[in-house]
Amino acid sequence: MSRRLALVVAATLVTSGCAVEAQAPPSRAPTTTVPALTPVSPLVADATRAQVPTIERDSTHRAAEQLTVRVRNVNCTGITLGSGFAIAPDVLVTNRHVLAGADELTIDTWDGRTIGVKTAKVGALEDLGLAVVDRPLPTVARFGPAARAGGPVTVVGYPLGGALTFSSGVVVDRVDGRPFGVQGDVLRLTARVEHGNSGGPVLDAQGRVVGVVFAIQVATGFGLAIPNETLLQLVRARGFEALPPCGSQ
Amino acid sequence: MRSALNARRVIAALLAVALLLAGAAGEAAYVAHTNKQRADRWRDRAARLQRNADALNELLVRRTGLLNLRARQLNALAAKVRLSSEALSRSEGDVQSLEERQRALANEKAQLEDARAALEQEQRVLADVASRYVRCSNGLKDALDAVVGEDTAWLDANGAEVESTCSSADAALQDFQTAYGG
């Protein structure tokens, strides 16, 4: 009897102990519907590594090429050749000695166009000249700040009547221009200058005009240029006169 | 006496068992209630998590689809960039060679224009020299006629001029030869 009783008690205790903890409900596994990733083409890496063409230097080069023209002066002694550049769509600057004595003046552009000259005038005191042309010139000069010693420059022109050339160098210094027949200062340059460069632009690193080539210093071989301040002063002062006749310059 | 004692013991034991059973039943009821509450909380939490998981899954699917779309667009663009780059290189090369050719032709043209201008100028100077010699020749012819006709008056009046005309023609020829050679 007491054994039965003990069994009943034990069974009751076991049964009640079974209800101590409840199990967590099983969770539903998430549905896996994520699509596979599309692989990125190696061309993308190539495209991100691709260098953008450095056209700035080219464009400066091309602008200088378009700016600089070849001046042909037919006169009583034959022909004289020089260079020049536009300061307005129909006005170009060159040297007095390039224009002087002309019976006929013509301008050749970089792309082979020939442009006629309507009128020309020369500086009364400087080796500078202006020519008004009968058709628009390809591009007009931008002027830079005054050139300083040590500054990099490029002389652009048609030396010896040949093809357009670019000659790089630096400004050596500014010297008194009177020994060279020029009022005010002149720039001395290490850039190579030859006959035919006369009247061509001296450009700074940004392609802006800082001077006009007019001569070579024989003693040193330095190129000589009239600074753009002198040119601009002369233009503002309208310091130009008629072309001297052939043989008088 | 002994059986009465046993009976009391049995009753006491039964009472104890009954109390134990009642306690166990109470505890079981309490635990069952607690379990139900806990189970409800778990179920709610599981449902919440499931909803979150579903939402995240849906977002992941959308984002992955978008990413794949962008990847395909990027691949297509990269292919276009490659094609454009190749075309640009070819064009740049073509333009450069055309420009080189244009520069060379422009230079040749300028040289020819120089030569033409020089020849025209030479022709003008030579024509001037020739006209001076024509005047000189005409003067000499007139002078010769005057000599033949013994017209000394004409010779006195024009001889110096004829000589000057011929000297001028000689000087012009000399200048021409100096300037142009030959």
**Radius of gyration of chain A in whole Å, from Cα?**
41 Å
Tell me which CATH architecture of chain A applies here: Beta Barrel
Question: Which stretches of chain A are poorly predicted, pLDDT < 50 over at least 5 residues?
Answer: none
Helix tally of chain B equals 2
Q: What is the helix fraction of residues of chain B, given as a range? A: over 70%
Fold and architecture overview:
The complex is a heterodimer of chains A (249) and B (182). Chain A is built from 5 helices and 13 strands. Chain A has helices spanning 2-18, 42-49, 55-67, 96-99, 228-236; strands at residues 68-75, 78-88, 91-94, 102-108, 114-123, 129-133, 152-157, 165-176, 185-189, 201-203, 209-216, 223-227, 240-242. In chain A, strands 1-2-3-6-5-4 form a 6-stranded antiparallel β-barrel. In chain A, strands 7-8-9-12-11-10 form a 6-stranded antiparallel β-barrel. The radius of gyration of chain A is 41 Å and the shape is elongated. The termini of chain A are far apart. The mean pLDDT of chain A is 86. Chain B is mostly helical and 182 residues long.
Q: Which key phrases capture this entry?
A:
heterodimer, A: 249 residues, alpha+beta, Thrombin, subunit H, 6-stranded antiparallel beta barrel, 6-stranded antiparallel β-barrel, 5 helices, elongated, B: 182 residues, mainly alpha, 2 helices, 0% strand
Topology:
The complex is a heterodimer of chains A (249) and B (182).
Chain A: H1 2-18, H2 42-49, H3 55-67, E1 68-75, E2 78-88, E3 91-94, H4 96-99, E4 102-108, E5 114-123, E6 129-133, E7 152-157, E8 165-176, E9 185-189, E10 201-203, E11 209-216, E12 223-227, H5 228-236, E13 240-242
Antiparallel strand pairs in A: 1-2, 1-4, 2-3, 3-6, 4-5, 5-6, 5-13, 7-8, 7-10, 8-9, 9-12, 10-11, 11-12
Chain B: H1 2-148, H2 152-180
Helix pairs in contact in B: 1-2
